[in-house]
Amino acid sequence: MNQKAPLGDSVEDVLDALRYENDKLRKINQVLIQRVEQGWGNQGDAYRSFQNAALLEDKVKDRTIKLRRTLYKLEEANQTLSETRRESAHTRQRLYDTIESISDAIVLFDSERRLVLANSQFYDFWRGTDARIETGVTRFRDLAPMAVRHGIYDPRRKPFEKLVQRGTSSRDSVIRLADGRWLQVSERPTAEDGLVVAYSDITALKQHEIARQEQVLAEQNRILQSMIDNLPLGVALVSRRGELEAWNGRFLDLTAADRSRIAHGASIAEVLADSPLLTASVGAEPEGSTGQPLMIETEELLENGRAIAVKRHGIPGGGYVTTYQDITTQRRTSEALKNAYKHMEQRVHERTGELTALNHQLRVEIEERGLAEKNLLEAKREAEQANVSKTKFLAAASHDLLQPLNAARLFVTALLDKELPEQERRLAQSLSYSLTDVETLLGTLVDISKLEAGIVEPVLDHFLINDLLRNLANEFEQQASRAGLGFRFVPCQLTVHSDSQLLARILRNFLTNAIRYTDSGRLLLGCRRRGDQLEIQVWDTGVGIPADQMQEIFEEFKRINPVSKREEKGLGLGLAIVDKLSRVLDHEVRVASRPGAGSVFSVCVPLGTSPSADTSPASRWGASLETPLAGRSVLVLDNEQAICDGMALVLEGWGCEVVTACTVEDVQALPGLADDPPDLLILDYHLDDGVTGLEAEQEIRKLLGHKVPCLMITADYGNALRQELKALGFLLLNKPIKPLKLKSVLAYMLKELP
Amino acid sequence: MKAISSPASLDASPAVAAAGSTQPDPRAAALELHQKLSAVEPACVLFFCGTDYDREALGEALTDLFGETPVIGCTTAGEISPAGMASGSIAGFSLSSEYFVVETAVVKNLATFTDSDAKGLVEGMLQRLERRAIAPLNHNSFALTLLDGMSIKEELVLRVLNDALAGIPLVGGSAGDYLRYSDTHVYYEHHFYSDAAVIVLVNTPCPFTIISGHHLHPGPEKLVVTRSDPAKRVVHELNAEPAALEYCRLMGLSLDALDTQSFALHPLSVQVGENHFVRSIQRVNDDLSLTFFCAIDDGVVLTRMSDGGLVEEFEQCMGEVLEEIGEPQIVIGCDCIHRCIEAESKGVKEPLSELYQRFRVIGFNTYGEHCNALHVNHTFTGVAIGAPYRYPV
């Protein structure tokens, strides 16, 4: 507040400033004093007025709020109350309006059964009488005596009352008034122990009911008469006094009654006086000795040839009903039936004779057929035996026939491995070729037989087609170049689902044929995808096949343009085998050709999902050819000594140490075997005395105290054995043993060894 | 009063219609207003218009359109319509005759209005109202006042009216004229009047509640009015210094920059009992005196007020209203022009306007608000009317 004071250092300046300040404070002081002293005096003063209002407002506010709150509640309660009152009045009015609007008379009584409320319809009953009906006075039980007194109820007749009790206090009754009206009285208790009585005028209903009953009766009557009229019988109802009460037209016709006399109540005797049926129709009442009504039945033959059956039935209570039936037709029919029966007997007798003859004939026939069946069964058994014999022969052929050949083969191989003079070598070489040819021919024949016999079962697997094709390509590339032909192989990375060995045989046949029938040019091995199949094709630029011989080439011993210049002795069985293999595998074989230009043979194989965990044996072996066999010890167990010797020669030729044995006992007798265990076992599956290679292997394992890698040799091409051995983890080679294959399998096995 | 706040039944027909128009042409504006306000059968219509309208044309148009329906109104310093805060427009509402009974009166010469005049006038109105009342008179009625804001008679008129009303609450506002301080009018029965007041008594079964409050907090600084002219509401000296200089010193303002916005942002109040009432300054005069919007006198102690959050305070206030009467159908609002200026200066006019829309405020910016006998400044004063309470049948 001292900013207004001049600034300065002199005492004068300070004094001036303080004086100024003092004046200000004095003034402030003065106005404040004045303000306080004036108090609340002058109401006309605007500010004072405001101040008063503000002070009052503050005090009043609290109380006002409380008051308002209470008042709101009060008002709400008040509103609800008046609402309820209005509701109540409404309800009463509605009730009155409701009962007034009902055409029935309605009376309400309280728990004391005093009248509470009644509608005008109720008071209408009492109009014209001096009866006093008063609310709160008149009782329910007073009403009936009053009604009688004032002649409202019929005084002559006792009021008809039909009580229907419903529950404890509800009941319905029907009363008749003096004026002929009918009332239904319904009594119902109310919730507050009161009673409601309703009087419904049901006169119209009653009258309607009676009228309806009469109508029903008339209708029934009409139906009955109509029925009688339309009966095919003549009917007459006669009273106890012999008077005609009812009849129909047919009665008149049949009895030839006197139509002039016919009338209701006419005497039956008079009506039928001239009738031939009088006697049958009239007579004592048909009544049995026990008093029970009887039936009297007679048949009358009239002069005109008609027959009438007359039946009289007694009616309970007297009188009777007579029926007349024209039975002329029935009689005639009956005669005819009698005749027919006689004739029929004759017919039956004749037929029986015929049937007996026929029966005899059939018996003879049955006997003949039984004989034929027996013969057929015999023939079938013979055929089955023949089949078994064939299978046995095949097994024997594969084992017994191939066994010595196998031995010879092994000997030749061993011989060729030796250092020989040139001439002997050539001889040995020729011998080897001859053996190979014999083996091939024999093998092919056996194969065809087996395929025909259904012995060969495919072992289906998922594998990469390329592994198979690459091996084939390696194999045939050399052969092709030897024949002066070009060879091309197109790899394929797809997986197929087939039997790799059987498929390889099909393709080998294709390739062999291609080389055989192609003089110059080239071959192509490749694949083509066809939907979910892979078509493996072998193309050649050979002589081709005339269109008319396309089918023939697949038959046994069929050859086209025999090529004499070649060394190979084709028997013409190759494509026959292909045909049978493709059936076994269910692979389609296709051929297309242009004579002089070339051919394409193909087989369609379903595509596979992914190759099985173990890749095809061919690839495994192919990859392990280089593993040296030198220095490895091998134990050979075969019941044929010749095989043992041959095997020993071959294996020793590869640098192996070989020990052979013909039986398990021989093995057990070998000195020091346990100390110097073999690296490998080669076991023939079929040993003497029914001992199997598996059993032998177990014995040897027991002897050595540990497992040794084992190769099984068998001439059994059956699938079951192959699967079993595979499951047990053994490798299997089929006889005849091809040395090259043996070498690669052994190398593979040894590679697995440490 | 909580019991009353139960929700109105949904099928209740609207008790109030509200409207606004920004049409500059008085007839077009009146037409738009009439069209929207006819949604209910009106017991009476209130409107608040800017001073830019040709008053005579507007009065004629309203007379033509509404006929004998009582129509009252006033000029404003800003309108609050269904579209929120506006300027240069017209806003209004109609009260349905189904839920409201009204009595209206005009006091044409405020200068000579006395206690006995007020008593006679108000008693007559109350008697007529009581005959037609549709709810208990004392507790379901309120009074609305519209005064010429330049009459300088508010305090006295309000006091005598309030005394005569005997407990019936009174709310209202002083007409404005966009801060020109020369052209304020009230409208009654087809005509605009100066130096006049319009009184409306309203009786209704709808729950309602009176709102009056401000958002300011008292500071420590005090000023004493040492010389004044109460009849003209002019303060010459504060603390025995020229009033304008002392005000500038306290507020840290420069004399040159002193304008309406300064007054709106730097309010002073008087303390009565526990309560502070803002005394707003209308203008600074050439002799460095200050003219106030409301009564002032020598020896009055003024307190410097500081801001307390205008929007938040209003929202909280409306929260209490919701508690008390439920969702309002209308809030008849008398909103001090200084609050409007303050909101604009502080950049909160938009949210405030949105709140007004949300709570269905219809009203205007005043030169002073009336609450019972009090003439106050810098407040939002009004009456919030809830939905009609329906008793279940």
Polypeptide structure, described:
The complex is a heterodimer of chains A (754) and B (393). By secondary structure, chain A is α+β, with helices and mostly antiparallel strands. Chain A contains 19 helices and 23 strands. In chain A, the strands form five sheets. Chain A has a six-stranded antiparallel beta sheet. A five-stranded antiparallel beta sheet of chain A has the order 8-7-11-10-9. A five-stranded mixed beta sheet of chain A has the order 13-15-16-18-17, covered by helices on one side. Chain B has 393 residues and is an alpha+beta fold. In chain B, strands 14, 15, 16, 17, 18, 19, 20 and 21 form an eight-stranded antiparallel beta sheet that branches. In chain B, strands 1-6-2-3-10-11 form a six-stranded mixed beta sheet. Chains A and B meet through α1 and α2 of A and α4 and β14 of B.
Largest sheet of chain A: 6 strands, antiparallel
Oligomer: heterodimer
* Main sheet makeup of chain B: 8 strands, antiparallel
Q: For the residues shown, what is the average pLDDT of chain B?
A: 90
Helix/strand structural class of chain B: alpha+beta
**Quick one: which chains have the greatest interface?**
A-B, 40 and 48 residues
Query: Which regions of chain A are unreliable across 5 or more consecutive residues at pLDDT < 50?
Result: 1-5, 564-569, 613-625
* Count of individual helical segments of chain B: 9
- Low-confidence segments of chain B, given as residue ranges, are 1-11
Beta strand % of chain B: 35-45%
Helix content of chain A: 40-55%
Characterize the overall form of chain B: globular
Instruction: Kindly estimate the percentage of residues of chain A that lie in beta strands according to DSSP.
Output: 15-25%
Gyration radius of chain B, to the nearest Å? 20 Å
- Radius of gyration of chain A, taken over Cα atoms and rounded to an integer in Å: 67 Å
The count of helical stretches of chain A stands at 19
Q: Which strand order spans the largest sheet of chain A, edge to edge or round the barrel?
A: 2-1-6-5-4-3
Q: How many beta-strand elements of chain A?
A: 23
Count of β-strands of chain B? 26
Alpha-beta content class of chain A: alpha+beta
| Ends distance of chain A | 114 Å
